[in-house]
Design brief:
single chain; 346 residues; alpha/beta; seven-stranded mixed beta sheet; six-stranded parallel beta sheet; 19 strands; 26% helix; binds zinc ion
């Protein structure tokens, strides 16, 4: 079978690997569609994603859907031929975080397609892979495998919105209009936000944000300079989602969120040397909080997609066969024309 493996910086190969064996409680899936995420891009372009460094060939991919081709002994949740959304996280279930119901913070999380552990937990950009049945969510509706591959990033957006608390009647700001920013726009609408402003420094993702529900989209790099211009342009927000990972965007959030408001950090900020007007957090009594991956949100994410309560189609900018995974990664790296690029298996 074919598998896409990253060996190092810009060294991605589509190689032949043996097909996996199915054990008790396991399910063998054929890849349907797999979305390329920012962390996959980091592994490809830099050989690392934050602190996670590639130390052996890594099969990327944690946003995928598939079709069941074989089930191991004892499996009851799915059967051969089922179309499934796949939860890439496998928490231990026993540590303190898991027992508190915060499994995304599990001490021993095994997350597919991640170099956080060694040996790495291999991902889903391959023809066939085996995972535990509880990570498979069968879907009988007309939702396509391409749509179901959004279950993971939509879960990230839903978890960020859950972290923000009630958004009913609130004005929100989203800094960063990429796929996660756009999914947060949709999730915030579902949660009752009345006004949504999105900022970015690239035109194309802002245009997509508009089609998925943003009221106003602002190119922050094109504002005239001067005190107050940014706050005037962006307006006031009760809650901000900082999705870009840019310190300048965090400063935008701090300058525009109302006193007593909340900022949810979604994007990955630089690991060191961060400068931002932190004193605003104290003098304006703001809540600044993080959000990491997702937990139980995966369940309702699959329902929203299966029942088409959210429309993710405007976010798909291309599908490439697994054989041309490199083309998919090259295309995904161009924010000027790409949003979510998927690798598919016919
Ligand atoms: Zn992702
Ligand atoms: Zn745990």
């Amino acid at each position: 079978m074919l598998a896409c493996r990253i060996h190092g910086v810009e060294d991605l190969r589509v190689e032949s690997l043996p097909e996996p064996e199915v054990g008790p409680g396991d399910v063998c899936l054929k890849l349907g569609a797999g979305g390329i995420c920012g962390s996959d891009m980091h592994y490809f372009l830099h050989g690392r994603a934050g602190n996670f460094v590639i130390r052996e060939p890594l099969i990327p991919g944690h946003e995928a859907s598939g079709t069941v081709v074989k089930v191991g002994p004892g499996v009851t949740r799915v059967k051969e031929g089922d179309k499934v959304a796949i939860n890439p996280s496998h928490a231990c279930g026993g540590c303190r975080a898991c027992r508190l119901g915060r499994e995304n913070l599990c001490d021993s999380m095994r997350f597919l397609g991640s170099a956080s552990l060694f040996p790495h937990v291999q991902g889903m950009f391959r023809e066939y892979f085996v995972i535990g049945e509880r990570q498979c969510y069968p879907v009988a509706s007309a939702a396509t495998l391409g749509e179901l591959a959004f279950a993971e990033p939509l879960s990230v957006a839903l978890h960020a919105v859950n972290r923000a608390g009630s958004l009913l009647g609130k004005s929100i700001l989203v800094t960063g209009a990429g796929p996660i920013g756009c999914l947060i726009v949709m999730a915030a609408r579902l949660a009752g936000a009345v006004h949504v402003v999105v900022t970015d420094v690239v035109e194309h993702p802002l245009a997509v944000a508009k089609t998925v529900g943003a009221d106003r989209c602002i190119r922050v790099d094109q504002l005239p300079t001067g005190t107050g211009t940014l706050a005037d342009a962006v307006g006031e927000a009760d809650t901000a989602f900082e999705v870009s990972g840019s310190p300048a965007a965090l400063a935008t959030c701090l300058a525009t969120v109302l006193r007593g408001g909340r900022i949810v950090q979604v994007g990955t900020l630089p690991a060191e040397g961060l400068h931002f007007p932190a004193n605003q957090i104290m003098v304006r009594e703001m809540d600044y909080m993080g959000t990491f991956r997702f937990g139980v949100e995966f369940d309702c994410s699959v329902r929203y997609l299966a029942e088409r309560r959210v429309d993710v189609q405007p976010l798909v900018s291309g599908q490439y066969p697994l054989q041309n995974a490199e083309g998919a990664f090259r295309s995904a790296s161009d924010r000027g024309r790409s949003m979510k690029v998927q690798v598919v298996c016919g």
